Amino acid sequence: MPIEDLRPALARSGSLIALALLLLILQACGGDGGPGRLDVVAPQAELRPARPGSTYASELIDCARVFNRGGNNNHAFCTLERLPLLGQERETLTPEAVLERTLVSDDWMAQRFEQALRAQPDELLQLFKGVTAVVIGADIRPSYYWLSTGAIYLDPARLWLNIAERDTISEAPDYRSDFDRELDFDVLWRYVRDGDYAWRNAPLSGPGQSRELEQILAPLAALLFHELAHANDYLPPSEQPNLDMSLTPAQAASRVQSASISAALARDYPLSSELMMDLAEVMYQGRDATEQEQQLTAQEVGLNFSQDTASDSYSYVTASRTLFLEDTAMLFEEVMMQYHFDVTRELAFTDRPDSDNASCNDFTVRWGQRGRVGHDSLKPRATLALQLLLDQNDVQTHLANLPDPEPLTEGLGWCANLSPAAIGVHAAPGMPLVEPLPEQDRRHSGGHPHHANHQSRTEYQRR
């Protein structure tokens, strides 16, 4: 059904949250063409079911279509009756149940996805109840969730294990990578374990090396926790059994908008930094920076950020300044990655070097924190997000082992803020670290296009 059919119902509701959701749905459907739209490239490769003989194989082809940048996305979408959420069909999900709702552009993607699903925590697997389908395509970048179809779309850069598989994947950059070019600071992030990178992304070109399955599990989980949080935010687990099956996912979301997790956070623990909301429009949605924004320093922005209760700068992406879906997804992703993989997220606001060939330590930290989601001011927000996304009241086991946040050393380079033992791996004793800044540290994802997830996250922009 065209998006216009949603306008009367939402307008009658009269709430700010409903109007905000309308904006997000319009963006998800490419309705306004403005900043923040789902601006991703549609795969050129033909998609096919990972399980051709599955019950919904033909519906997947028709219903889980990919967003078409620059094209018409206001066609009729499938109802939940035609392609239900996975959780509406099964009380407990198995890897096979997810694969039966998966489309791929290359056969190896289905094989690797199956291997990865079987090795992931069951708690992650059950989150697929909130989606209608999974699409993995060679040209999808960044990853995203699209409300109009109720499906998640995954960049296979986190799935390949050998060079032959890698070389089937598009090398196109994330289209958002240059959005912040006018700003005079950088926002860097990484997951760490034992004072070093929890993982390093492998390049999509060059000689390269094969990878083991274990190497892709954590980065893939971060992406999936993020994108599945979006799906279960729009269509909360508590509401999924009672959704009107005659509606599309977007229409169903409009009916339960007051129950969304982001709406609950907006009511009880709203974000307040107008500066960070402004900068998010520049960094992640492509708005031109104002002259005043171009003059901001890393220290000024970092201190402003520290006084609010978001876990990440990406949390401020919004279409309405009322709902912050990336905030919900970031809180959930970070807690779940700490709980299941014992990895902690670091975030820093750094100076921006003048040289394009700057080393990692030329990015001087002016404000940074390790494990910010464990801060006392953020824990109530994280608790609420987990309770609603996991549909359970007791989430204290997930939060119990969150480390207290630690400040990064200001005036020190980004890589020099790793432990001395980790630095020693990358530089000879007594020698300055000249390693280039890892690309993953600068780009946002799913995960995380939602806008990207990590490296790429997308959601409505979108990550």
Strand order of the largest sheet: 1-2-3-5-4
Low-confidence stretches: 1-19, 25-44, 424-434, 445-463
Q: Roughly what percent helix? A: 25-40%
Count of discrete alpha- or pi-helical segments spanning 4 or more residues: 18
Rg, rounded, reads: 21 Å
Rounded mean pLDDT is 85
Structural class: alpha+beta
Q: Span from first to last CA? A: 24 Å
Assess the beta-strand content as a share of residues.
5-15%
The major β-sheet equals: 5 strands, mixed
Q: Work out the number of β strands.
A: 12
Multimeric status of the protein: single chain
Please supply descriptive tags for the structure shown above.
18 helices, globular, 463 residues, single chain, five-stranded antiparallel β-sheet
How is this structure best described in words?
The protein has 463 residues and is α+β, with helices and mostly antiparallel strands. Helix content is 34%, strand content 11%. The protein is built from 18 helices and 12 strands. The chain has a 5-stranded mixed β-sheet with strand order 1-2-3-5-4, sandwiched between helices. The protein has a 5-stranded antiparallel β-sheet with strand order 7-6-8-9-10. Strand 4 (144-146) and strand 5 form a beta hairpin. Helix 15 crosses helix 16. The two termini are 24 Å apart. The model is unreliable at 1-19, 25-44, 424-434 and 445-463 (pLDDT under 50).
